[in-house]
Specification:
The structure is a single chain. The protein is an alpha+beta fold. 25% of the residues lie in helices and 30% in strands. Strands 5-1-2-3-4-10-6-7-8-9 form a 10-stranded antiparallel sheet. The chain starts with a helix and ends with a helix.
């Protein structure tokens, strides 16, 4: 797929991949040489490696009216740069199916990503990451908030997807044990 064609779709609603767990519809925010950024209707930003895009098509949806404003998209020269900017962030890797995984990004190096999942360090080759997005860990606590709290949540979503200082200390201790093996 040509970058010129993809660049012409920036700002429009697109469907990436036709079906299955990797199919996703959103507003195309940015195109870089090896990844693209999609914004979902709820404001979530998803970074997709171009090597895993099998098809892309414009939809008939009106992207300017139906999408929430969101925090600024991470911009990097390549996909590994995006991963580095997501350090100590709760993320979801891949959209669904057996390859979906959620955890905290710890490190990236030599084409690998280290992620902590349920107190386990998982090493994932960057090549196998189809997409990644930050997730709000507070959303998994159920629907306890009222309407006024939900507007505060969207304003604080950028902060709630970052690991706390205590979590980072625990992660660093886990890494120390991991490296000493």
């Amino acid at each position: 797929m040509g970058l010129n064609y993809l660049g012409s779709l920036v700002g429009t609603e697109v469907k990436v991949n036709r079906g299955g767990p990797d199919s996703i519809i959103g507003r195309l925010v940015a195109v870089q040489h090896d990844y693209l950024t999609l914004q979902l209707k709820d404001g979530t930003l998803v970074y997709i490696q171009l090597q895993h895009v099998k098809s892309i098509s414009a939809t008939n949806g009106n992207a300017s009216r139906s999408y929430k404003t969101t925090h600024r998209a991470e911009q990097a020269h390549n996909f590994e740069g995006v991963l580095a900017q997501l350090k100590y962030t709760f993320v979801q890797i891949n959209r669904g199916g057996p390859e979906k995984i959620e955890g905290v990004v710890v490190e990236t190096w030599d084409h690998y990503l280290l992620i902590v999942v349920n107190n386990e360090i998982v090493r994932i080759p960057v090549f196998h990451i189809k997409s990644i997005n930050a997730i709000n860990k507070n959303n998994s606590n159920g629907n306890k908030s009222n309407k006024s709290n939900s507007s505060n949540k969207s304003n604080k979503s950028n902060k709630s997807n970052k690991a706390t200082a205590a979590q980072i200390v625990a992660i660093k201790l886990m890494l120390k044990k991991y490296r000493s093996r």
